[in-house]
# Entry
Amino acid sequence: MKLLLTALLVATLLVAVPAVAPAQAPVPRAAAVDTVTLDGVNVKLRTTTRQVVTVNKTHGWHARVTYWAKRDGEWVERFRATDGRVGFGGLVRPRQRVQGSGKTPAGTFRLPWAFGMHRQHDSWDESYRKVRNGDYWVLDNESAHYNHYRNKKRGGFRWWLDSSHADASERLRDYPSQYEWAIVTSFNSGQVRHRGGAIFLHVNGSGATAGCVSAPRWFIRKLMFRLDQDRKPLIAIGR
# Structure
């Protein structure tokens, strides 16, 4: 009888006492992106960024372009051009940009590599690429190579389309002055069709750009000797 009562008591206690759920580890939050304001432009920094170019649209299609470097934890202005340019259509939020609109996307973008008309210089970042005959920047919305650098010999896009066509790509040698040096931005690296591409930081032409940012030749040349992919350079465009 005692054994029966003891068994019933143990069973009752097991039912009455709720099981304690094991403690769960906290879910880590996504690493916050630091934001700094340089010359009035908000820059979304990456953890290892040590170089930034800011583009402050001043009036119309004119802009102030400044190169900054991080030293001892502080951002230091290295040099500035007051006669930079943006697109003839002004600025636009990146996701709202439309190909052919002449608008420059606002925001922070990477500066992953550069190309130009000169041979590689020992002091330039090794990612530099010299423009060859038949090199294009693909803006053909039907191409898998949309918003990429590609030579026509490799095919995959309609390089023969007239420049007035909505899907015409840029033949890079058609712009020997502006693309003497051109630094590529990461805008639309996801290849969203009809959003456009070929958004570079390049040498000034005679007026506004078609969506790029441009600066005087001396400014771009100095950048070519300073930008270093190990320092994760960025460009921030705003007003």
About this structure: Residues 1-32 have pLDDT under 50 and may be disordered.
